[in-house]
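Exam revision sheet. Question 4 asks you to relate a sequence to its structure. Input first:
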Amino acid sequence: MTLPSDISTTYARVATQWHAQRNRSLFERPWLQRLVTGLGPGASVLDLGCGSGEPIGKWLIEQGFALTGVDIAAPMLDLARRAVPQGIWVQADMQRLDLGQRYDAIVAFNSFFHLSPKAQRQMFPIFARHLRPGGRLMFTCGPEAGEAMGAVAGQPVYHSSLSPAEYALLMEENGLLPLRFVAQDPDCRGHSLWLAQAR
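Answer key, structure tokens:
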């Protein structure tokens, strides 16, 4: 059994193996395209839990966006700096994030769901504070409320999710308009995802 507090040490320990095994087929592309629809070259994107920068960070750079990646595990960021040197890479805990600027889009793919339910609730003001009006947010979660154990590079990791109804309420309370939710999307390898927009 692992806890949310174990995530940083786990990812730091398995960073090289995780990077080598990370699926690079870009199955995330349809949701990434929804996230950046309407954004012009040079628009700013914040990747929370960016890992080693591939394939999501690399794809965003290739589309002409200004990328800032945030991760709690320093070894992941070392890999990201080598793989995608055009990005800005910041070591930080998303739960206490205050970068002092707003972005045109935020993505938290397979990262936000490592937080406890309480911590997830506390993230929505942070999302809102880092989004420009009209900016979009995309994140993965579970299909329903609950906690589960998963694995990364053979190591156990914690996951949790709120209910879709609670996510929608939290977004509304923090000035975010829910645009789309798909539970266990077959076109995204079974991931459950939200897309929202700052009012």
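Marking note for examiners. The first helix runs from residue 7 to 21.
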